[in-house]
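User: As part of a screening pipeline, I want to sanity-check one entry by hand. Below is the sequence and the SMILES for zinc ion. Please return the complex as structure tokens so I can compare it with the automated output.
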Amino acid sequence: MNSPKNNPVYSKNDNSKVVLPDEEWKKILSPEVYTIARQKGTERPWSSKFETSKEVGTYYCAACGNALFKSDTKFESGCGWPSFYEPISKAAIIYTPDNTYGMRRTEVECGRCKSHLGHVFDDGPPPTGLRYCINGVVLDFEKAKEAEKKYNKDTNEDRKL
Ligand SMILES: [Zn+2]
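Assistant: Here is the complex for your manual check:
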């Protein structure tokens, strides 16, 4: 897990925006997450275990717990970073123009805490044609098992009615 337990803003249920001074982030995030999320760093390509992962579940922001992507929108882009063609919801992501390094790119940030996640490019697969190229360090993954169990239980209860 990338998230330290002493992170008071980390929540998978609370959607309220997180605004913290930089020194607070530095205290509550691991150095790896802090460098990418708050200093717009980039992890080495091919370094993330999520890059080739095919596990079914949900990817969350490692800084605040905001749900970002579902595994069924993940695809193998070959670019060296975990890649998705669509965020879990429109509000999950914030888009910012990034013209650093002489390139015109669009930066993607977490919609809840504005942590830097990566960039979005328009060379992705259908149906969106987009490629969200995301640093695995700022992703927390949760397998679908728990959610599916709950779903199946709910469905069975519905059938009884
Ligand atoms: Zn976040």
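Points to compare against the pipeline: The two ends are 40 Å apart (CA to CA). The longest strand covers residues 93-98.
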